[in-house]
Design brief:
Number of strands of chain B: 9
Largest sheet of chain A: 2 strands, antiparallel
Strand order of the largest sheet of chain B: 2-1-3-7-9
CATH superfamily of the largest domain in chain B: NADH:ubiquinone oxidoreductase-like, 20kDa subunit
CATH topology of the largest domain in chain B: Rossmann fold
Order of helices and strands of chain A: EHHHHHHHE
Number of domains of chain B: 3
Strand content of chain A: under 5%
Structural class of chain B: alpha/beta
CATH superfamily of chain A: Transmembrane di-heme cytochromes, Chain C
CATH class of the largest domain in chain B: Alpha Beta
Oligomer: heterodimer
Number of strands of chain A: 2
Distance between the termini of chain A: 21 Å
Shape of chain B: elongated
CATH topology of chain A: Fumarate Reductase Cytochrome B subunit
Strand order of the largest sheet of chain A: 1-2
Radius of gyration of chain B: 32 Å
Largest interface: A-B, 92 and 75 residues
Chain lengths: ~240, ~400
């Protein structure tokens, strides 16, 4: 990662510069470790495949044609099941990493356990509502985003469990048959199917918001957020508040 | 069959026009239905002919009598009918000759004389609202009768979805407070649920034949349904499954695919989420079954099917607040587009405001005039004086 060349501009207003206009020297900070980045992209890619195949399973648009001994929906389902394995393992790995990984992959990034995180969360909300010009400093996830991801991980788990419940119905000879007890929790296979379908749309809404926010943050805050999920590095002012590091 | 011991039985068969061949065919059918080996056929035939028949009491509560109809539907006497007649059905309101006090006395006698030994078949759900006033027989509520009769029964068989899961009477908003037998009468010794609307007579016969032959009840799943009949989904045994896997679907009733016999999945078929053996044993003495004649499965054998499986011609129920027939995918697409639009607007405003601030700052700079901070900035400075101006992270 090459640090973007930045001419040290004079701050427009010395008292309250926005981060983008912060004139001080920047330094690369290694924020996202390999597990975080790999699990992120495994989740993104598997979600793309799962959404495409999942919509086809719910209301098939790929047709086998007439008179042919095809296996169109069969293949779509098989792809869905393999992608589901990638997704489930990636989510599981990331959840385990929340308790075993380094500081900025930690569960405290998601649950605002400290008073400082909670204060910063309000500050970030104000920034998003354009009530303040710059967000509180955050090296990893900002507390608002972290809380959002907590919900997203909750939806991931719901997705996995409803999917397992549906899979268990016909997994007569597999150990996956054991997940049948979940059918009671989700009001039968039809209930699991409904939840699985609606949650997909909620996650799609999140994905759109997430992508738009990443673009906007990259443009406004100019701290390398968008690059960081590829490289692991953000570019932050050397004199930033470091109490969350 | 042993000669002598079952002369009476054989005479009974002959009197009803059922040949020994018919009877053995019936026993083979039961064995096949129960997935038992060929050697079990003789065992079943022997048991049915010689073993003492349990006393059967048939209770009917909040229902349409469809299960009795299903049971008595035979166009000609079959071996199954004979078996069931031999069960000594001591109480069945629809078919018994006795009426009024005589009928109630027969019930009373059956359950006192055979305490702990009789089998109860329940048809219909049990209303609990208004102190049970929605269904009373001989001045007693369904709940009272069910509790009295089922408590001392050897086993209770809930025939049909109403008895097994509440069925139509229990569908939202469930005005009579209808419950399944299992929920209304806790502590039943052995409860066998045979859901479906109506119950498939073959399954009921097979359960009873199994008990007479082996002296125990068939293995059941978490919902009390015998595994031999409810262990697989309709989808997994469907004769049209190959068309599903191939991606060949009926798009509209009467279209080319429908006439050929393509998969009914896109017509809202609930076969994938419904467990029953309809594809194997079919209905009306094996004549046909819904999917076989071109209609999607409506999931009648599942709990709360009237609430969960409707609309019958759609894949999923609607979204609360949008109506039961709302198209989830349409709502989802609008919601996703809405988020995209909102984020774009937010982004443009954010970028626009930034550009405006920059231009304002640039204009103010040459004159070294007062700072350009907004009210919000001042508020922020008051709020969090400790904050250093620094890059945030919204990743």
């Amino acid at each position: 990662m090459v640090a973007p060349a930045r001419a040290p501009a004079t701050p427009a207003t010395p008292t309250t510069p926005t981060p983008a206009e912060h004139g001080g020297p920047l330094e690369p900070v290694y924020v996202w470790d390999l597990v975080v980045r790999l699990s992120h992209w495994a989740i993104v890619l598997s979600m793309l495949v799962l959404t495409f195949t999942g919509i086809d399973i719910a209301r098939p648009f790929l047709h086998g044609g007439s008179g042919k001994a095809g296996f169109t929906t069969g293949y779509v389902r098989v792809i869905h099941f393999y992608a589901a394995q990638v997704f489930s393992l990636a989510v599981l790995a990331r959840l385990v990493w929340m308790f075993t990984g380094p500081r900025r992959s930690d569960w405290r990034q998601f649950i605002p356990a400290s008073a400082q995180r909670r204060r910063d969360m309000i500050g970030t909300l104000k920034f998003y509502l354009m009530l303040r010009p710059s967000p509180p400093p955050a090296t990893g996830h900002n507390p608002m985003a972290g809380l959002m991801y907590l919900g997203v991980f909750g939806l991931y788990v719901l997705m996995i469990l409803t999917g397992f419940a549906l899979y268990s119905v016909s997994a007569y000879t597999s150990y996956m048959h054991g997940w049948q007890f979940l059918l009671g929790v989700f009001h039968g296979a039809q209930g699991a199917r409904w939840l699985h379908h609606v949650t997909m749309w909620v996650l799609l809404c999140f994905a759109v918001q997430h992508f738009a926010s990443a673009l906007l943050t990259a443009r406004v805050e100019k701290n390398g957020t968008l690059d960081s999920i590829f490289t692991g590095y953000k570019f932050l002012p050397k004199d930033r508040r470091k109490d969350d590091e | 069959m042993r000669a002598g011991a079952d002369d009476a039985f054989r005479r009974e068969l002959t009197a009803r026009g059922v040949t020994r061949r018919d009877f053995m065919g019936f026993c083979s059918g039961v064995a096949a239905l129960l997935a038992l080996p060929r050697s079990a056929v003789g065992q079943i035939a022997d048991a049915l002919a010689t073993k003492p028949k349990p006393v059967l009491v048939w209770l009917e509560f909040q229902d349409c009598c469809g299960n009795s109809e299903s049971f008595l539907r035979a166009s000609k006497p079959t071996a199954a009918d004979v078996i069931l007649d031999l069960l000594s059905v001591d109480y069945h309101e629809t078919i018994m000759a006795a009426a009024g006090h005589q009928a109630e006395a027969a019930l009373e006698k059956a359950i006192t004389d055979h305490k702990g030994q009789y089998i109860v078949v329940v048809e219909g759900s049990i209303p609990t609202g208004a102190d049970g006033a929605y269904c009373t027989i001989g001045g007693k509520s369904a709940l009272q009768i069910a509790r009295t009769v089922c408590r001392d029964a050897l086993a209770v068989i809930s025939a049909g979805t109403c008895a097994a899961f509440g069925g139509l009477p229990a569908a939202s908003p469930n005005p009579t407070g209808a419950l399944s037998v299992g929920d209304a009468v806790p502590g039943i010794r052995t409860l066998i649920n045979l859901p479906a609307c109506p119950v498939n007579a073959e399954n009921l016969t097979a359960v009873i034949a199994y008990f007479i032959t082996f002296g125990k009840w068939p293995a059941t799943d978490r919902l009390g349904r015998p595994l031999f009949a409810y262990g697989k989904t309709i989808h997994d045994n469907c004769e049209r499954r190959a068309h599903f896997d191939a991606g060949q679907y009926v798009e509209q009733f009467g279209d080319a695919g429908h006439r050929i016999g393509y998969c009914l999945y896109k017509m809202g078929c609930k076969g994938p989420v419904t467990s029953q053996n309809c594809p194997n044993i079919r209905w009306n003495e094996g004549t046909n079954w819904p999917i076989g004649c071109g209609h999607p499965c409506i999931g009648c054998a599942e709990p709360a099917f009237w609430d969960k499986m409707t609309p019958f011609y759609a894949h999923l129920t609607g979204v609360p607040g949008f109506g039961t027939a709302a198209d989830i995918d349409k709502i989802g697409l609008y919601a996703t587009a809405g988020v995209a639009a909102a984020m774009t607007t937010h982004g443009l405003v954010q970028l626009g405001r930034k550009a405006y601030d920059k231009r304002k700052a640039a204009a103010a700079k040459p004159t070294e005039a007062k700072p350009t901070e907004s009210k919000a900035v001042a508020a922020k400075a008051a709020d969090e004086p400790a904050d250093k101006p620094t890059a945030g992270g919204a990743s």
